[in-house]
Structure formats: structure tokens, C-alpha cells
Design brief:
By secondary structure, the protein is of the alpha/beta class. It is built from eleven helices and 18 strands. The chain folds into four domains: 150 residues, Distorted Sandwich (Spo0b-associated Gtp-binding Protein, Chain: A); 183 residues, Rossmann fold, CATH 3.40.50.300; 95 residues, GMP Synthetase, Chain A, domain 3 (2-Layer Sandwich); 41 residues. A six-stranded mixed beta sheet has the order 10-11-9-12-13-14, with helices on both faces. A five-stranded mixed beta sheet has the order 3-1-8-5-6, with no helix packed on it. Strands 15-16-17-18 form a four-stranded mixed beta sheet. The radius of gyration is 39 Å and the shape is elongated. About 4% of the residues have low confidence.
Length: 502
Amino acid sequence: MVTFVDRVTLHLRAGKGGNGCVSVKREKFKPLAGPDGGNGGHGGDVVLVADPQVTTLLSYHHSPHRSAGNGGFGMGDHRSGAAGESLELLVPVGTVVKDESGETLVDMIEPGMRFVAAPGGLGGLGNAALANPKRKAPGFALLGTPGWEGDVLLELKTVADVALVGFPSAGKSSLIAAISAARPKIAEYPFTTLHPNLGVVQAGEQRYTVADVPGLIEGASEGKGLGLEFLRHVERCTALVHVLDCATLEPGRDPLSDLEVILAELAAYPVPDGQTPLLERPQLIALNKIDVPEAKDLADLVRPDLEARGFRVFEISTVSHEGLRQLTYALGDIVAAHRAELAATPAPERIVIRPRGSEKEFSVRVEGGTYGNIYRILGDKPVKWVQQTDFQNEEAVGYLADRLQKLGVEDQLYRSGATPGATVVIGEGDGIIFDWEPSISSNAELMTAPRGTDPRLLRDSRRTTSERREKYHDMMDAKAEARAELEAERIAERYRNEEDAE
């Protein structure tokens, strides 16, 4: 049964924005009092929140699909739709959020940090919001846009002050159990620890956290054993404690050779940019299991060599608790000095970046096709406008054409070599396909037509009275001409018959 998960892929779906409403106010003695369609509600966001009370990603391992609420539809009488309910997902402090390509989006290292992983869709405007002095009663509204949908990778990196590193069965779990209230699994076989364990240590006035990292072996930085999976939990630690087994019975192993292997693996592990390399952080040596007489002798033998290399060495026993007090107080001094250094360092000025609107809000990409070139329009605005358009409503389609022309899309299509009837696609993939007709001009606001229609898009329009009258007169004139021709032929035939009779 899985009890600890430090990496999981979340499948997120933000809420869809609600559609705007098309409505015209009608009251007694106030016929056609004006549009009163309300706006649709915005879709809910999916927000990640760093919570110190959460220690694992286990709940997301069992149920990775999460979605927020959709926005409500707008209604008449200027009533806006309800906003979709946002979804807050609690994650452990130290969680790194990455996109599908592996690029880091945010590092949630502070309690209470919030990150909108999936923004909700925008609610569509009702026809009341679209009305203006020229378009007094729009017969259309904008649709809500879909919310963001995709996958994000959550990767937990333990936030602790001190990390215990060493070979499997070196006594790291026993050490954290002896100096804190943590109760990790302890057994006489290697790789007993399959996930990091955290413990809180009180040393005088100093309180700090210690992480028990699973055992490392040679080649851990290259993926051997469990080291590569859990070395990332050492990244955030202030100090390292090398727990060396002085009572090991394995041939070819001793504290000095074990230390060399661990140092090599720590040096080979790359830390993120801006962080101190692992071997440049404070390091202490804990020679463990000195309650065994042979181990005590070995510890006394190797201690001078370790101290000659600049390490502070502590001989400890997790069974008799010998040397634990000195070790915990030494670690407390290191953590206190690091915290004081951070407090003395002035915090960098918080820079708020507000990106300006791009001068080029869209682009036209020419793609070759079987039946000629395809002109693909890319950009946030055109794609969003297409999503907001109800293509069953001619007036809405005309409004979209006006927006695209005012943005300069039509001029850019001309410059790209597009001709009338060319295939135009808005957005990536299949997108929305149009047959471009540049004759559609941006003067819909000055045209008079029934609500929901656009005379520029009418192909089989009904004839006007004058057109029907003109056609009727043409038909009557044609009949009169035909009768005159027949009468002239009849008279000519009669004259011929009379001449023959004479």
C-alpha cells in the first residue's frame, strides 16, 4: 500500500465561463425599452496552496483528476450569472510545479503561497454590455470561453534544516528516532527507509527539523538504487550529517570509504541555479554504533583522519544515546547562524512585472495545402474572440468580422498574399476555418436590419416592393410586346390572303 508520494501528475480542468444573455426589456407602456441581457459568470480557477500541515501528495495520487465549477449564464433584467466556484488544492511546502515539458512554473517554498495552476474561462458579455449609440439593441451576446485544461507535474522537495545522509543501514532512521519524536520504520535489512522522514529536534532554545533521506549507494546520482529519487530532498537543507556505520560487517567497507562514496554522489548531483552546491554546505560526521566495542575502536582510529580533513566529528550511539546531545546542539548552532544570516540579509525588493500589451497582437502564418495556401491567424485576442462568437447568429459573426478588421487582420492578410476566397484558419490545430471575403466592411453599426442578422452576410435576401414592382412591369411589357408581334403577324397574313384572292 502506497503511504508516501512525492511526485504526481495532476489533470486539471478550470471552469468554463457562462454565456451572456440576449434580452430586450418589455414593460407595460414601455415597449422595447432597450437591451437588458446580463453577463455570464467567470469560470472557477484551480489554485494550488502551500500548506505546512500537508506532508505528502498521496491524495492526488489516488484521484489526479480535479476540476473547478463553471460560471452561470447571464439572465434578463441585467442579472449576471454566478461565478464558478474555485478549487483550492493543498500541497506540501516545498512542492515544485512543472508543466508537461518539465519547465518549472513555481517553487512553493513559503507557507500560504498560492498559484493559479488553471485559470477559469471568461464570462460572455450580454447584449446590454454590447449596446452603444450606434448599435442600440444588439441581437446577440458573447459566449463564455473555456477554462484552461491540461496536466501539471507536482514534485515534492522536503523542506528541512538538516539532512541525514549515508549508506543503507547506517543508522539514520534510528538516529532521527532517538533525537526527535519521529517513528520511522527500523529493521536489520538495507533500504528499510523508502521515503524521507521528518523529525523536529529541540536543542536548548533552538528548534529545527531533520530529514532522514533513504540510503545512498555508489552510482546514486546516475539512477542506481533509490538515491536519485530522493537526493532532491537534500536540496533545501542547510546542513548535512554524514552518518557512518562503524560496525558494518560487509567486506571492503569502512567509514572512510563510505564517506568517499557519499561525497562523490553529492558532488555529482546538480542543484538548481541559485542554490549552494551540496558539498559547500556545513557538514558534520556522526560515527554511529559506538556501543559496539569494535566500532568504538574503529571510530577512535578514523577520527583523526576525518578531523584532519576539516570535519567536525561526533561519536554517537542511538542505543545508549551517547554523544547525541553534543550533536544536536552543534546542529542547532549551525541552523541558528544560518537563520541569523538570512535575517541580516536585506530582502530583495519585490518587483512587480506587468507585461505591456504586445505591439503585434497577432500573426499570420502561411501554410501550404493541397488546394492552395492556408492563412493561419495566431494570437490570444483572435482566438478568444472566436471562442466568444455564436456562429449560428449572423449579427455575432458580423461583430467578429468588425473586431478582426479593426485589429488589422484584413490588412495583414492582404500583405501576406491572401486573395478573396482564400482559406483562413484562426488558432492552432483544426481551429475555425473561414472562406475569406474582404468585401465585408466594418459598417454594421450603420446598417438597419432585424436583430440577429447582418445584411452583409445575407445571400438569399427577400426582394423589396420596388424590386417586385419593377419585375412585374418588365413582365407586362414583355407580354405587351409579344401580343403586338402576334397582332402584326395576323394583319400581315390577312393582307396576303386578300392579295391572293384578287
